Amino acid sequence: MADRVVLAYSGGLDTSVGIGWLKDATGKDVVALAVDVGQGGEDMDDIRQRALDCGAVESIVVDAKDEFAANFLMPALKANAMYQKTYPLVSALSRPLIARHLARVAKELGADSVAHGCTGKGNDQVRFEAAVAALAPDLKSIAPVRDLALTRDKAIIYAEERGLPIRQSAKSPYSIDKNVWGRAVETGFLEDPWNAPIEDLYEYTQDPSVLQDADEVVITFSQGIPTAIDGAAVTPLQAVEQLNLLAGKHGVGRIDVVEDRLVGIKSREVYEAPGAIALIAAHEALESLTLERDLGRYKRGVEADWANLVYDGLWFSGLKRSLDVFIDDTQKYVSGEIRLKLQGGRAVVTGQKSEQSLYDFSLATYDTGDTFDQSLSKGFIEIWSLPSKISAKRDLRQQ
Prior knowledge:
Number of helices: 14
GO molecular function: argininosuccinate synthase activity; ATP binding
Keywords: Amino-acid biosynthesis, Arginine biosynthesis, ATP-binding, Cytoplasm, Ligase, Nucleotide-binding
Family: Belongs to the argininosuccinate synthase family. Type 1 subfamily.
Mean pLDDT: 93
CATH architecture of the largest domain: Alpha-Beta Complex
Number of domains: 2
Binding site for L-citrulline: 87, 123, 127, 175, 259, 271
CATH class of the largest domain: Alpha Beta
Shape: elongated
Low-confidence stretches: none
Subunit structure: Homotetramer.
Strand order of the largest sheet: 3-2-1-4-5
Strand content: 15-25%
CATH topology of the largest domain: Argininosuccinate synthetase, chain A, domain 2
Order of helices and strands: EHEHEHHEHEHHEEEEEHEEHHHEEHHH
């Protein structure tokens, strides 16, 4: 029905008020769509009912946790994806998944528009709308906060006047987004980069300065994907969930970064992603054992490009798809086991083995049994350094 708009619904103040606000501004009935990506907190049935109580004509809840882990988090893990070498793309990975379901539901209902609760100065507006444009170019995207002048103070007044079931009526000190891959915290006193984060900020991780006895965990990978933890088979979702608990117990995955937003401003962000950081550390170690040198070097450049594309909202772009093909091909031998020691905020690799390993003990050892022919090195060095030697002679002639 062209007289409907599908709203990405979180259950919070802005999207709850956005239901009536959208109806008033556009004349369209609002269908609320809540997508469970492992954010925890409230029961999804309560969120579904709240949307109806706030005026939605229909409220849909999608359990997408396994889909998120398998189709979005595992590609990110295979890419060792870290924006600015620091941030494991917590929010950026969930947006294309939510957008996919927005586009799907809109098509199924015959709606001509979708909506989201993003502001006009963040990255998520771009991620939602670029994804929808790639999946369903005929759909119109509406952002009540950005396009329809829905400010927080107006939202509170609107909710109070209409008796909407919104628990939060006062300004929270932080803006928080979370899913099973991690948790993002911003605004409030964090907007001054000189202010250190306080312990109350964190939920997924315990204080790493309170030292606990170390835990060791063995992660088994098959073609770049974790398939077992300490010998027990796991799905991708279970791997992330279990490592969130194990690594989070030791404060692994706390990140404090001044981030370059796509919209051209810098923002100070605090993240915690214990499972993501532990898994990426293990996966990188296994790649160092199983990828040949030049492939590993080249892949690191591709990883940075991949992370930039995903951060910038281009999950469904042609370049991203092509990079996925390359990355998937690199993973065919990335199978084996990695042992991690978890303690004091760190996930340290203490053991690595693989049937696909390129490490040859007889070549690497300096003891009896060494099969490396050291006499070959002299000639290799002479040929390797020949271009530098020739150019150096030219430089000397010009002096």
